[in-house]
Amino acid sequence: MILPLVSYNIAILEWLHIGIRF
Fold first, then answer.
1. In whole angstroms, what is the distance from residue 22 CA to residue 3 CA?
2. CA 6 – CA 8 distance, rounded (Å)
3. CA distance 4 to 12
4. What pLDDT is stored for residue 12 in this prediction?
5. Which domain of life is it from (predicted)?
6. What is the C-alpha to C-alpha distance for residues 1 and 3, in angstroms, rounded to an integer?
């Protein structure tokens, strides 16, 4: 149950990093 939320949070963090990089 918690795994999906964690993976979703990680995906958001990755998107934020990509946004900051670009």
1. 28
2. 5
3. 12
4. 93
5. Eukaryota
6. 6
Q: How far is CA 4 from CA 20, 21, 22, in A?
A: 24, 26, 27
- Which residue type is seen at 10? I
Q: C-alpha distances in angstroms, 2 versus 5, 8, 9, 10, 14?
A: 5, 10, 11, 12, 18
Given a cut of 50, the residues of the chain with pLDDT beneath it are none
